[in-house]
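Record 1 of the preview.
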Amino acid sequence: MDIKQLKFLVALDETRHFGQAAARCHVTQPTLSMRLRNLEDELGLELVQRGQRFEGFTEAGQRVLSWAHNLLAAEDGLYAEAAACRGQLVGTLRLGLVPLAGFDPMRLIGRFAALHPELRFQLFALSSEQILERLGRNQLDLGLSYVERLDRQHFTSLELADTRMGLLHDRRHFALDAEQLSWGALIDLPLGLLSSGMHFRQSIDHSFRSRGLAPRPRLETDAVHQLLQAVDAGLCCAIMPLDSGLETLSQHLVLTPIADAHTLAPLSLILRRSAPRSAVAEACFAEAQRLLAAP
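->
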């Protein structure tokens, strides 16, 4: 067994496609398939369910895959730790983010990147549940997520913001001149919302229900860029977090605060407590603490 076989296995998990996994690993598809079969022979286990295409992992494959993620993270951590001992910070920061947050993540990423120009960043748009799951499996270094019930034994967190909400609209299509809007004022507007089940949407639904209101959104999506496209086209207005930087994307966008509008849980930066924990993740968490403490 060698580390490349584990990288092939993880690439297959992330792409769910033999050809794409091979391209990511810069090998041919026959080579990737052969090396995975060699790994199965060495372990005496069937790891991958095969048909004419990739069909998933066996139960044993899922268990081996979890170890593969840990071993690869440990390898990356080893190199990063060695660099840290030399006074350098290198490697990749894997950050999971909820789709809508009342904190512009580029404030932190830009500041951290300026301090450590050799770093690379991988950003993943995920639900709160997915972020905690991937942090637990060491598939992420940090998570930017809404936290209601956090397992403090396994995670530590830094509260970033009590996310407040506003109505994002394009002034070319809607004339809303109020300095602040009520929830009742939104009910007759064509609204674009994130899909049901996402934390930000749950907070919106709770705010409407608690006032006896039942909106009928004109558009629902799980992608923020589609919401922004719909607002730009005049198809709808969208309830968005304040202080997210979204209104600066176009001179035509206006984000008007909504009275008594905030998410059910605060937004927090989350770090695993258990090893392996990368030096990059710890340094970024510490930088976030300094950013919040700055006047």
